[in-house]
């Protein structure tokens, strides 16, 4: 089946952190890569990305889903839930209800809806072991609601690249350019669409796993600033996405120059 109106919803991963276009502050990510592939043989194809970093599912339901449905998409991809499981006020039953509401709303109005489970971050981010059970509960809710309403699931829990830090950005939470390409490939596979096989090809060399010295430096550079920011946000009531807007709020065509830059893989000939 060909798709002509593709809308992406979610948080920072759907926005494209940490995969910037070369020489810019604009993020690319798996959604842009998938859109470029879907647009290759159809000049009428249109793509919008309403994702905003820091957004929880309850915010996505209120802010993004109504805007998405106004665009009358025939394909929607929703990547969310990570910010829900990391809140101080986390309750599994509340998150499950949010998952169910989001998938129900989307599938009632859109022919094809794709949702994503989350990979296990607890093994590569010390201090997050406590959220493993939260991730498992979120993923179970996603599978349950997707089966109930007929959404497709890209299951990332067993993703083999989760143990290789080259697939992740400096914070070890967001995907790197290589990670985003893998995720785009998984999405396109779920749709039965061909993609650049290099996106799933193993990276050369051994997987990157931090030693103690590298780990200590990472904690100082990456973890402490995040802890300070989260603490400040908690006291002030701010969200990490406050002040940010969707990078592509309207359904727009994918032009040839954009397609060329999206298909560039660092290190390739």
Automatic annotation (TrEMBL):
Residues 8-182 form the SGNH hydrolase-type esterase domain. Keywords: Hydrolase. CDD domains: SGNH_hydrolase_like_1. InterPro entries: GDSL_Rv0518-like, SGNH_hydro, SGNH_hydro_sf. GO terms for molecular function: hydrolase activity. It comes from the Bacteria. Signal peptide: none annotated. This is SGNH hydrolase. It comes from Amycolatopsis deserti.
